[in-house]
């Protein structure tokens, strides 16, 4: 595990600037936070909305990596150079997003269906004089794990600084088991530092993935880090989250979203998304869990959370969001 990096996966609406700052402050343990994807526009300038996530001020003191979602090399190139000017040390290309609107435009995992176009794109971005390392976050393919061989052969033509693999297909969306065998089959061929991602829930899972993938450079965790904000701290030998820590952290998060949105109601909606995962650090309580999402007033919302929290923090988070294929 020498030099292994623990990374928070990019998750739109969850691993926001607000979350990153507070998570880093309250729990630490995370070596890198990947910023949820930014789609660069044709006009070569980040929008105010982009800068809310990207500006150096909001990320001061926090180790972050920006991610771009694009299939137009010109847009990727200006944005990567602008990120370089902002002081970033890595830019990540999103080749995994399975959302309908994204793949319909041939972006994210939609780009994996057209390897000729992807090759042209990669040729162009890797010869454009971008001076910061380019990493890729990818799925195994569109609909069949057999595709991964060709995808990997394409990536091998370029000097990726890191290849992060979410071990699912686009057609899996977020369901079913991660397809470890498909990555294992090609492990010896991967010439870049490797990041593995998908369904690590506990520190035991992280140890298991580390062994299975022969000590990969990076373990990237998304949803389980929302469920158990102390997951990485524990993996590094630190303590589990106490109830008081969870209370302080989630209260601070709610307040910071209120401040960011200038709106308590919208902040509460955002906190509901977070609690969808956070509730899994407590004993199962289906009624209280439902009440979180049914609640219309802050009073009802906080009452539901109090009921969840009566279940005390568990040693390991439950995999409560698991869905069959
Ligand atoms: C709500 C949500 C938003 C996500 N947003 C992004 C994103 O912006 N960029 C990206 O590469 N992956 C995104 N993902 C995928 C995650 O980064 C990660 O690959 C996936 O959740 C599997 O890892 P996990 O099982 O540890 O959560 C998102 C996932 C979720 C659930």
UniProtKB/TrEMBL annotation:
Pfam families per the UniProt record, alphabetical: Dus (PF01207)
Keyword terms of this UniProt record: Flavoprotein, FMN, NADP, Nucleotide-binding, Oxidoreductase, tRNA processing
Residues annotated as binding FMN: 67, 137, 166, 222-223
UniProt GO molecular function: flavin adenine dinucleotide binding; RNA binding; tRNA dihydrouridine synthase activity
Sequence ranges assigned to domain DUS-like FMN-binding in this UniProt record: 8-295
Broad EC category: oxidoreductase
Family label: Belongs to the dus family.
Protein name: tRNA-dihydrouridine synthase
Organism in which the protein naturally occurs: Parasutterella excrementihominis YIT 11859
């Amino acid at each position: 595990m020498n030099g292994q990096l623990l990374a928070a996966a990019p998750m739109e609406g969850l691993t926001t600037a607000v979350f990153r700052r507070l998570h880093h402050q309250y729990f630490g343990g995370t070596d890198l936070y990947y910023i949820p994807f930014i789609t660069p526009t044709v006009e070569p300038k980040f929008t105010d909305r982009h800068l809310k996530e990207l500006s150096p001020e909001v990320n001061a003191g926090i180790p972050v990596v920006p991610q771009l979602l694009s299939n137009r090399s010109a847009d990727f190139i200006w944005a990567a150079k602008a990120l370089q000017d902002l002081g970033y040390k890595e830019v990540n290309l999103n080749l995994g997003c399975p959302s309908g609107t994204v793949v319909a435009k041939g972006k994210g995992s939609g780009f994996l269906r057209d390897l000729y176009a992807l090759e042209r794109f990669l040729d162009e971005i890797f010869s454009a004089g971008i001076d910061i390392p380019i990493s890729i976050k990818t799925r195994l393919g569109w609909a069949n794990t057999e595709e991964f061989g060709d995808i990997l052969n394409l990536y091998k033509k370029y000097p990726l600084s890191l290849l992060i693999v979410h071990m699912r297909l686009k057609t899996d969306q977020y369901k079913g088991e991660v397809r470890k065998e498909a990555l294992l089959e090609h492990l010896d061929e991967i010439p870049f530092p490797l990041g593995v991602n998908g369904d690590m829930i506990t520190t035991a899972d992280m140890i298991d993935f580390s062994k299975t993938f022969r000590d990969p450079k990076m373990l990237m965790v998304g949803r389980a880090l929302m469920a158990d904000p102390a997951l990485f701290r524990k993996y590094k030998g630190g303590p589990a989250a106490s109830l008081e820590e969870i209370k302080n952290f989630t209260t601070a998060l709610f307040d910071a979203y209120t401040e960011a949105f200038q709106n308590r109601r919208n902040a509460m909606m955002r906190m509901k998304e977070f609690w969808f995962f956070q509730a899994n650090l407590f004993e199962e309580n289906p009624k209280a869990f439902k009440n979180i999402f049914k609640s219309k007033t802050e009073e009802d919302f906080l009452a539901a959370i109090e009921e969840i929290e009566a279940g005390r923090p568990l040693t390991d988070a439950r995999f409560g969001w698991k869905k069959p294929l």
